Amino acid sequence: MSAPLIEFRGISKRFGAIHALEQLDLSLHAGETVGLMGDNGAGKSTLVRIIAGNFQPSTGQILLDGQEVHFSDSTDARDRGIEVVYQDLALCDNLTAADNVFLGREIKRGVWPFQWLDYGAMARRSAELFAELKSETRPRDEVRQMSGGQRQAVAIARTRLAQSRIVLMDEPTAAISVRQVAEVLDLIRRLKDQGVTVVLISHRMPDVFTVADRLVVLRRGNKVADKKIADSSPEEATGLITGAIETA
Fold first, then answer.
1. Alpha carbon 181 to its chain's center
2. By CB count within 10 A, which of 37, 68, 116, 180 is most buried?
3. Residue 138 and residue 142: Cα distance in Å, rounded?
4. Distance between CA atoms of 214 and 118, rounded to whole angstroms?
Protein backbone atom coordinates (compact mmCIF):
# COMPACT_ATOMS: atom_id res chain seq x y z
CA MET A 1 0.00 0.00 0.00
CA SER A 2 1.16 3.54 -0.72
CA ALA A 3 2.32 5.90 2.03
CA PRO A 4 -0.50 7.45 4.11
CA LEU A 5 -1.92 10.77 3.01
CA ILE A 6 -2.35 11.75 6.65
CA GLU A 7 -1.16 9.94 9.74
CA PHE A 8 -1.92 10.37 13.44
CA ARG A 9 0.59 9.02 15.92
CA GLY A 10 -0.09 8.70 19.62
CA ILE A 11 -2.89 11.29 19.56
CA SER A 12 -4.42 12.06 22.97
CA LYS A 13 -6.87 14.76 23.92
CA ARG A 14 -7.69 15.69 27.49
CA PHE A 15 -10.23 18.14 28.86
CA GLY A 16 -9.13 18.44 32.47
CA ALA A 17 -9.66 15.04 34.04
CA ILE A 18 -11.57 13.74 31.02
CA HIS A 19 -9.54 11.69 28.52
CA ALA A 20 -11.48 12.05 25.26
CA LEU A 21 -8.82 10.25 23.19
CA GLU A 22 -5.95 8.08 24.39
CA GLN A 23 -2.80 7.29 22.38
CA LEU A 24 -4.63 6.87 19.07
CA ASP A 25 -2.77 5.81 15.93
CA LEU A 26 -4.55 6.18 12.59
CA SER A 27 -3.52 6.37 8.95
CA LEU A 28 -5.68 7.54 6.05
CA HIS A 29 -4.73 6.82 2.46
CA ALA A 30 -5.65 8.69 -0.69
CA GLY A 31 -8.89 7.55 -2.30
CA GLU A 32 -10.13 5.32 0.52
CA THR A 33 -13.36 5.54 2.46
CA VAL A 34 -13.07 4.87 6.18
CA GLY A 35 -16.14 4.21 8.32
CA LEU A 36 -15.67 5.73 11.78
CA MET A 37 -18.03 4.24 14.35
CA GLY A 38 -18.57 4.32 18.08
CA ASP A 39 -21.19 5.03 20.69
CA ASN A 40 -21.86 8.50 22.09
CA GLY A 41 -18.80 9.61 24.04
CA ALA A 42 -16.49 7.22 22.20
CA GLY A 43 -14.27 10.05 20.94
CA LYS A 44 -15.46 10.31 17.32
CA SER A 45 -16.35 14.00 17.49
CA THR A 46 -13.08 14.83 19.22
CA LEU A 47 -11.08 13.00 16.56
CA VAL A 48 -12.99 14.73 13.76
CA ARG A 49 -12.37 18.12 15.35
CA ILE A 50 -8.64 17.37 15.59
CA ILE A 51 -8.50 16.31 11.93
CA ALA A 52 -10.45 19.44 10.96
CA GLY A 53 -8.21 21.75 12.99
CA ASN A 54 -10.86 22.79 15.55
CA PHE A 55 -8.96 21.09 18.39
CA GLN A 56 -5.23 20.68 18.90
CA PRO A 57 -4.18 17.33 20.40
CA SER A 58 -2.81 17.29 23.93
CA THR A 59 -0.05 14.93 22.80
CA GLY A 60 0.95 13.19 19.59
CA GLN A 61 1.92 13.98 16.01
CA ILE A 62 0.03 14.67 12.79
CA LEU A 63 1.85 13.98 9.53
CA LEU A 64 0.51 15.15 6.17
CA ASP A 65 2.34 13.78 3.12
CA GLY A 66 4.97 12.51 5.52
CA GLN A 67 5.67 15.93 7.04
CA GLU A 68 4.65 16.90 10.57
CA VAL A 69 1.95 19.58 10.62
CA HIS A 70 0.17 21.64 13.26
CA PHE A 71 -3.29 22.95 12.38
CA SER A 72 -3.80 26.24 14.18
CA ASP A 73 -7.52 26.33 13.31
CA SER A 74 -10.10 25.02 10.84
CA THR A 75 -9.06 27.54 8.18
CA ASP A 76 -5.52 26.21 8.36
CA ALA A 77 -6.80 22.64 7.87
CA ARG A 78 -9.03 23.72 4.95
CA ASP A 79 -6.07 25.42 3.29
CA ARG A 80 -4.33 22.04 3.40
CA GLY A 81 -7.25 20.25 1.74
CA ILE A 82 -9.37 19.05 4.68
CA GLU A 83 -13.10 19.79 4.57
CA VAL A 84 -15.99 18.81 6.85
CA VAL A 85 -19.60 18.24 5.80
CA TYR A 86 -21.46 18.61 9.10
CA GLN A 87 -24.80 16.99 9.80
CA ASP A 88 -26.66 20.32 9.56
CA LEU A 89 -24.81 21.02 6.23
CA ALA A 90 -24.57 24.78 7.04
CA LEU A 91 -26.52 25.75 3.92
CA CYS A 92 -28.54 28.93 3.34
CA ASP A 93 -32.07 27.86 2.41
CA ASN A 94 -32.93 31.19 0.76
CA LEU A 95 -30.02 30.98 -1.71
CA THR A 96 -29.58 28.89 -4.84
CA ALA A 97 -27.40 25.79 -5.07
CA ALA A 98 -24.72 27.77 -6.94
CA ASP A 99 -24.81 30.58 -4.37
CA ASN A 100 -24.24 28.02 -1.60
CA VAL A 101 -21.40 26.28 -3.44
CA PHE A 102 -19.57 29.59 -3.81
CA LEU A 103 -20.54 31.09 -0.44
CA GLY A 104 -17.47 32.99 0.76
CA ARG A 105 -15.63 32.16 -2.49
CA GLU A 106 -17.71 34.13 -4.97
CA ILE A 107 -16.47 34.79 -8.51
CA LYS A 108 -16.37 38.51 -9.24
CA ARG A 109 -15.93 40.59 -12.38
CA GLY A 110 -14.57 44.06 -12.84
CA VAL A 111 -11.87 45.96 -10.96
CA TRP A 112 -12.23 47.08 -7.36
CA PRO A 113 -14.16 49.12 -6.30
CA PHE A 114 -16.31 48.53 -9.39
CA GLN A 115 -16.92 44.80 -8.99
CA TRP A 116 -20.00 42.61 -9.24
CA LEU A 117 -20.79 38.94 -8.76
CA ASP A 118 -20.52 36.75 -11.84
CA TYR A 119 -23.62 34.60 -11.32
CA GLY A 120 -23.30 33.00 -14.75
CA ALA A 121 -19.75 31.76 -14.11
CA MET A 122 -20.75 30.41 -10.71
CA ALA A 123 -23.76 28.59 -12.17
CA ARG A 124 -21.66 27.05 -14.94
CA ARG A 125 -18.94 25.84 -12.55
CA SER A 126 -21.56 24.48 -10.13
CA ALA A 127 -23.19 22.56 -12.98
CA GLU A 128 -19.80 21.00 -13.80
CA LEU A 129 -19.34 19.94 -10.16
CA PHE A 130 -22.83 18.41 -9.98
CA ALA A 131 -22.14 16.58 -13.25
CA GLU A 132 -18.89 15.18 -11.82
CA LEU A 133 -20.88 13.92 -8.83
CA LYS A 134 -23.57 12.56 -11.17
CA SER A 135 -26.17 14.55 -9.25
CA GLU A 136 -29.36 15.95 -10.77
CA THR A 137 -29.10 19.06 -8.60
CA ARG A 138 -29.53 22.24 -10.66
CA PRO A 139 -27.42 25.34 -9.90
CA ARG A 140 -30.28 27.87 -9.98
CA ASP A 141 -32.69 25.91 -7.75
CA GLU A 142 -33.20 27.26 -4.24
CA VAL A 143 -31.94 25.01 -1.46
CA ARG A 144 -35.23 25.34 0.44
CA GLN A 145 -36.92 23.29 -2.33
CA MET A 146 -34.37 20.47 -2.31
CA SER A 147 -34.43 16.93 -0.95
CA GLY A 148 -31.94 15.74 1.64
CA GLY A 149 -29.89 14.02 -1.06
CA GLN A 150 -29.71 17.16 -3.18
CA ARG A 151 -28.66 19.22 -0.16
CA GLN A 152 -25.83 16.78 0.47
CA ALA A 153 -24.79 17.21 -3.19
CA VAL A 154 -24.55 20.98 -2.68
CA ALA A 155 -22.44 20.57 0.47
CA ILE A 156 -20.15 18.05 -1.22
CA ALA A 157 -19.82 20.19 -4.37
CA ARG A 158 -18.59 22.98 -2.10
CA THR A 159 -15.75 20.72 -0.89
CA ARG A 160 -14.85 19.87 -4.49
CA LEU A 161 -14.68 23.55 -5.39
CA ALA A 162 -11.94 23.84 -2.77
CA GLN A 163 -10.09 20.84 -4.29
CA SER A 164 -10.31 19.00 -0.99
CA ARG A 165 -8.18 15.90 -0.46
CA ILE A 166 -9.90 14.69 2.71
CA VAL A 167 -13.63 15.04 3.37
CA LEU A 168 -15.11 14.27 6.79
CA MET A 169 -18.83 13.46 6.58
CA ASP A 170 -20.77 13.65 9.83
CA GLU A 171 -23.89 11.44 9.80
CA PRO A 172 -24.76 12.32 6.17
CA THR A 173 -27.66 9.86 5.94
CA ALA A 174 -29.42 10.74 9.19
CA ALA A 175 -33.11 11.64 8.87
CA ILE A 176 -33.47 11.22 5.09
CA SER A 177 -35.45 8.76 3.00
CA VAL A 178 -34.20 5.42 1.70
CA ARG A 179 -33.95 6.79 -1.86
CA GLN A 180 -32.03 9.83 -0.66
CA VAL A 181 -29.67 7.57 1.33
CA ALA A 182 -28.83 5.78 -1.91
CA GLU A 183 -28.10 9.16 -3.54
CA VAL A 184 -25.71 10.16 -0.75
CA LEU A 185 -23.88 6.83 -0.86
CA ASP A 186 -23.44 7.33 -4.61
CA LEU A 187 -21.98 10.78 -3.91
CA ILE A 188 -19.45 9.19 -1.55
CA ARG A 189 -18.50 6.71 -4.28
CA ARG A 190 -18.00 9.59 -6.72
CA LEU A 191 -15.60 11.26 -4.26
CA LYS A 192 -13.65 8.02 -3.94
CA ASP A 193 -13.50 7.72 -7.75
CA GLN A 194 -11.93 11.19 -7.83
CA GLY A 195 -9.20 10.11 -5.38
CA VAL A 196 -10.66 11.89 -2.35
CA THR A 197 -10.25 10.32 1.08
CA VAL A 198 -13.60 10.14 2.87
CA VAL A 199 -14.12 9.61 6.60
CA LEU A 200 -17.74 8.56 7.09
CA ILE A 201 -18.95 9.09 10.66
CA SER A 202 -22.18 7.15 10.98
CA HIS A 203 -24.38 5.12 13.30
CA ARG A 204 -25.96 3.43 10.27
CA MET A 205 -24.29 0.05 9.93
CA PRO A 206 -25.63 -0.71 6.40
CA ASP A 207 -24.21 2.55 5.04
CA VAL A 208 -20.74 1.91 6.41
CA PHE A 209 -20.65 -1.67 5.15
CA THR A 210 -21.94 -0.56 1.73
CA VAL A 211 -19.36 2.12 0.86
CA ALA A 212 -16.42 1.93 3.30
CA ASP A 213 -13.13 0.17 2.56
CA ARG A 214 -12.09 0.12 6.19
CA LEU A 215 -13.77 0.13 9.59
CA VAL A 216 -12.41 2.07 12.58
CA VAL A 217 -14.23 1.70 15.91
CA LEU A 218 -13.62 3.89 18.95
CA ARG A 219 -14.75 3.09 22.49
CA ARG A 220 -14.16 5.35 25.49
CA GLY A 221 -11.41 7.25 23.69
CA ASN A 222 -9.53 4.15 22.54
CA LYS A 223 -9.32 2.60 19.09
CA VAL A 224 -10.60 -0.97 19.44
CA ALA A 225 -10.71 -1.92 15.74
CA ASP A 226 -9.05 -0.85 12.51
CA LYS A 227 -9.60 -3.41 9.78
CA LYS A 228 -10.83 -3.96 6.25
CA ILE A 229 -14.60 -4.02 5.88
CA ALA A 230 -14.25 -7.36 4.06
CA ASP A 231 -12.70 -8.84 7.21
CA SER A 232 -15.46 -7.66 9.56
CA SER A 233 -19.24 -7.86 9.86
CA PRO A 234 -22.09 -5.74 11.22
CA GLU A 235 -22.39 -8.18 14.13
CA GLU A 236 -18.72 -7.76 15.03
CA ALA A 237 -18.95 -3.97 14.68
CA THR A 238 -21.95 -3.90 17.03
CA GLY A 239 -20.06 -5.98 19.57
CA LEU A 240 -17.06 -3.67 19.38
CA ILE A 241 -19.20 -0.55 19.80
CA THR A 242 -21.07 -1.93 22.82
CA GLY A 243 -18.06 -3.59 24.45
CA ALA A 244 -19.36 -7.13 24.05
CA ILE A 245 -16.18 -7.65 21.97
CA GLU A 246 -13.07 -6.09 23.52
CA THR A 247 -10.96 -5.59 20.40
CA ALA A 248 -10.53 -6.84 16.85
1. 16
2. 37
3. 9
4. 42
